[in-house]
């Protein structure tokens, strides 16, 4: 496995104090230890737990909590990407950062899954991802979506909430692309956002017709 050891020492981002525990889920002992060292470098207070299967991870999370969850994708009892989606729907983990660390191309897992390349994993890259995810979450929480829905009156939740959620996800993806210095893909995400906003305008104007 190709590892860029130099990257693992390169000016890691200052730790976010809201992340005090990490769960590493990988069936490969070497990879678990590598990820553990990467995430824990210069963070002696970070509690790191390890699980070798998704079943073990489920059992752990039933009785404990992790602020950061790092998953291998190809596990003996399922796919880490599917498990990440499952965990994202768990209200107990609303504040957790969930990321798949894959040996393949992270883009193959879908835009709805936060993913990093295992072969190119570095301490700085990992904590930059954590910081970006937490910042995006703060933006989403303060986005004013409830007020937008309230402005459209009763029943707007059912009509507009799915579209607004998609727009927020698309905006988040564009921000992530820019953070990864990929302006072309960021522009594509912003163009999609523009189309969705125009579609939302059409929906609202149609609802106002007598």
Report the principal-axis shape.
Answer: globular
- CATH-assigned fold name of the largest domain: Rossmann fold
Indicate the percent of residues in helices. Answer: 40-55%
**Strand portion:** 5-15%
Q: What features would you describe in this structure?
A:
The protein is α/β, with parallel strands linked by helices. 51% of the residues lie in helices and 13% in strands. It has seven helices and seven strands; from the N terminus they run βαβαβββαββαααα. The chain has helices spanning 29-40, 54-63, 80-88, 123-141, 145-151, 156-179, 183-208; strands spanning 21-25, 47-51, 68-71, 74-75, 78-79, 97-102, 115-117. Strand 1, helix 1 and strand 2 (47-51) form a beta-alpha-beta unit. The longest helix has 26 residues, at 183-208.
List the helices and strands and how they pair.
Blueprint: E1 21-25, H1 29-40, E2 47-51, H2 54-63, E3 68-71, E4 74-75, E5 78-79, H3 80-88, E6 97-102, E7 115-117, H4 123-141, H5 145-151, H6 156-179, H7 183-208
Parallel strand pairs: 1-2, 1-3, 3-6, 6-7
Antiparallel strand pairs: 4-5
């Amino acid at each position: 496995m190709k590892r860029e050891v130099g990257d693992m020492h390169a000016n890691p981002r200052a730790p976010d104090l809201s992340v005090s525990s990490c769960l590493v889920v990988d069936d490969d002992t070497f990879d678990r230890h590598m990820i553990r060292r990467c995430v824990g470098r210069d963070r002696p207070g970070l509690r790191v737990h390890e699980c070798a299967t998704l079943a073990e991870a489920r059992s752990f999370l039933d009785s404990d909590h992790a602020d950061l969850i790092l998953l291998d994708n190809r596990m003996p009892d399922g796919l880490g990407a599917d498990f990440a989606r499952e965990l994202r729907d768990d209200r107990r983990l609303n504040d957790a950062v969930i990321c798949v660390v894959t040996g393949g191309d992270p883009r193959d897992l879908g835009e709805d899954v936060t993913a990093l390349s295992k072969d190119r994993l570095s301490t700085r890259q990992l904590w930059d991802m954590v910081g970006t995810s937490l910042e995006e979450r703060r933006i989403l929480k303060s986005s004013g979506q409830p007020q937008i829905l309230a402005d459209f009156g009763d029943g707007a939740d059912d009509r507009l909430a799915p579209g607004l959620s998609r727009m927020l996800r698309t905006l988040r993806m564009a921000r992530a692309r820019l953070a990864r210095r990929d302006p072309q893909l960021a522009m594509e995400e912003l163009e999609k956002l523009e189309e969705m906003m125009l579609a939302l305008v059409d929906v609202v104007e149609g609802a106002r017709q007598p």
